[in-house]
Amino acid sequence: MKYSITFQEKDYDQLVKHLFSDRLKERAAYALCKISKTTDENRLLVREIIYVADEDIEDSSEVHMKIKSISFLRAIKKANDTKQSFVFIHSHPEGFINHSTQDDREEHSLFNTAYNRIRTNSIHGSLVLSSPDKPIGRIFLADGTFELMSMVRVIGEQFKFFSNEKDSKNIPEFFDRQIRAFGNDIQILLQKIHIAIVGAGGTGSAVAEQLIRLGVGTLTIIDGQTFETTNINRVYGSKIDDDGIEKVKIIERLATNIGLGTKINAVNQPITFQSVTNELKNADIIFGCTDDQWGRSILTRMAVYYCIPVFDMGVKIDSKDGFIKSIEGRVTTLLGNYACLFCRERINEKAILSESLAETDPEQLERLIKDGYANELDTPAPSVISFTSSIASLAVTELLHRLTGFMGKERISNEVLVFFDQSRIRTNRMLSKLDCFCGDPFYNMRGDTTPLLDTTWRDEKK
Questions:
Q1: Tally of CB atoms within 10 A around 188
Q2: What is the DSSP letter of 234?
Q3: Which secondary structure element, helix H or strand E, spans residue 155, and what is its range?
Q4: Under 8 Å between Cβ of 226 and 247
């Protein structure tokens, strides 16, 4: 079982400012977290940070700190009242990266109190920071033992992944030119992160090809469709005799043929099943390459509830009788407090209802269409490999920027629009609308709910 913790960038930056405001004294804070549980990982999602005030510190120096019990008891009580996990965070002198023997002694008592007083099925832990880029975390279990956190994530304008897993000793020489561009650390990071791709068609297969060749360690590929020969002009890794093969199997074969060691988790079902969406909870980053609005609505919620960034993309060709009026593509970055696909009116409840009923109750859909309460489903749209590939490349480039910042700090847009017929690209940055869930603190980092994502799901048996 892996354990990890995720911060929103704005919260982490404020935490660092507090912890290192005086380098001659240790400082502390408490984080209250919701949780994301899978069979592979327990992930803490930081919802609130409570800073330990100066008046609650009895004694402090560069190498020790004594906090009044009332301080942490208040935080533990609030964790219990709000049904959240409790995390103790404090600074260390530079160079003292790990927990100390004094931390070991004091935290055993602290977390024994936490487990006794927080009466929910939670896990609790601690973090030490010797510098902003050296957070080390561990989880204290109810039996008094502890496990190291494998990852500390900081998600915002930049994506930072601080891994506690051992680095690979050797990086294959065929990554040499990438390392010349972005450095050794990014190549090591790519090997450690887990990326999910929803949709294995024109954009999805192109994204998969590029991520595999970049050296991403683990890919989850989700698509419930089989390959048709009409897809041959745009699906990477496909062959003319693949008719009837699961699309995810084509990507699995592609990774094997390339041979860089990328682990593929192939899921041959759509994300409109709850069990499939649960697979996304293990991902660090998601690429949304699906055409349907129902799937996009789920990805929008995943980005908000779990702080897993989603690069959603699409290409629209407006043509009639072989005459092209316009060709537009976009990559939209989805995160809490950013404008989501509902805010941007790229998806709507009426279309989502139509798509969901088409899969679960076609007869009811026909009745609602007749009465004007649902939309007719769209016919298959035109698709051309050069355009889908361009948008896939743009999405992967957005990922590289978020990991490295190579476009500069002034590049803070959360959507890129491409007008192919006009040879024009523009960006925009929109915050959440006031009445949309994506900007509501109640939903941000909400984590596991019953039902998942507070939404209804199709019958797993059908």
A1: 17
A2: T
A3: strand 151-155
A4: yes
